[in-house]
Amino acid sequence: MATYIFTSIADFKAHLGGAINQNLNINSLAPWIEMAAQTHIWDWLSQGQWEALVTAVDGTPSAEQTALLNKLKRTTALLTMYEYAKVGSVQFTEGMGMVRAESDQQKTAYKYQEADYRRQMLVMGYESLEVMLDFLEDNEDDYPLWVASTAYTQNKALFINTARVFRQYYGKQLSRYVYETIRPIIEEVETFAILRVIGQDQYDDLKEGIALKSLTADETTLISHIQKAVVHFTIQEAMSRNWVQFEGNRIVQLETLEPQGIERAGSAAGGAFSEKYNHHNLLANRHISYILYYLKNNLSSYPLYEAYYEARIEEESTTTTETDTELYSSNRYYGAYPLVPSTEKKVTGIKRL
Fold first, then answer.
1. One Pfam family, short name please (predicted)?
2. 123: Cβ contacts below 8 Å, ≥ 6 apart
């Protein structure tokens, strides 16, 4: 009988190579396989799809199930070892409590080695998770259980749905795991920094195009500009919450210690924090400014935005007395960049009347 999605310890090891010893018993790992799935995988794969694959392994999986299992096994094995490594080196005994196993031939790993191992399992586990999700998106017709789940909807809910896209605009140092920690911020940034800029109808239409995989060339171009602003606002917000998790839950600076050359992570100083924070704020607002410039000069390509734009101009012409700078300079999502060049557009509107 299979242990969840693995048929044997050899099957488990095949996805880890030298990261695991052949002598490890699959039964010792069984609870941690399930916990890794519940903690890290079900939200994206769905419990229903997981359980269907577990059942299939005990029988004869279809070609489609086998293809998905090949992707799922790697991320599950990596994340299982991330979880199991917390307890695998110690035992709890009667009378002596917690002890560690050690012999003349084998010594327990140093703390830094344990930390490096667990970090690698976590990071690569989440990278493999994203590979699996890309596979599911490319072959969604083969996996109706997944398509019917909230995991499927969630996987396409944002303007930036993968760490790969986030890295395109930020840098390769951002892992899928870090993306997971800041994903809720991305959603908030979209609501507060993007929705007001492009209007509800245009916003909803773009989201529908993402969900249905039916974006036009113009929509793809607009989304790419939106993604650049979202990236920088997200990092800025993450810094405000002390959540930029390149190292744990801290914003850190790396310092090389001599003579060992070990990197030490410490909390970022106020000056370094402020410089990085203001840098992302500046870049984000530049992109917001460009989005408005781009839309203003391509109104015919975005009729939903054009209707929103005209409505705002009409509203401002009767209710607004402040200048654009006065209206938006106190709002950090827009900085000193005017949202709508209202004076210029009002003149145009009067001519049309």
1. DUF6712
2. 175, 176, 177
Q: How many residues does the chain have?
A: 353
For residues 80 and 88, what is the distance between their CA atoms, to the nearest angstrom? Answer: 11
| Domain that residue 237 falls in | 157-174+182-242+272-323
**What does the pLDDT read at residue 339?**
40
One domain, residues 129 and 18: yes
The more confident residue out of 263 and 150 is 150
Our count of domains for the chain comes to 2
Beta partners for residue 6, in sequence order: 3
Residues 6+ apart with CB under 8 A from 240: 277
Give dist(CA 158, CA 207) in Å, integer.
Answer: 7
Distance of alpha carbon 298 from alpha carbon 309, whole angstroms: 12
**Mean pLDDT for the stretch of residues 87-92:** 56
Q: Judge if 76 and 200 occupy the same domain.
A: no
Q: How far is CA 350 from the centre of its chain?
A: 46
Model confidence at 268, in pLDDT bands (50, 70, 90)?
A: low
Strands of the chain, DSSP E: 90-93, 97-100, 252-257, 262-267
In order of 47, 57, 86, 146, 161, the CA distances from 53 in angstroms are 10, 6, 27, 11, 25
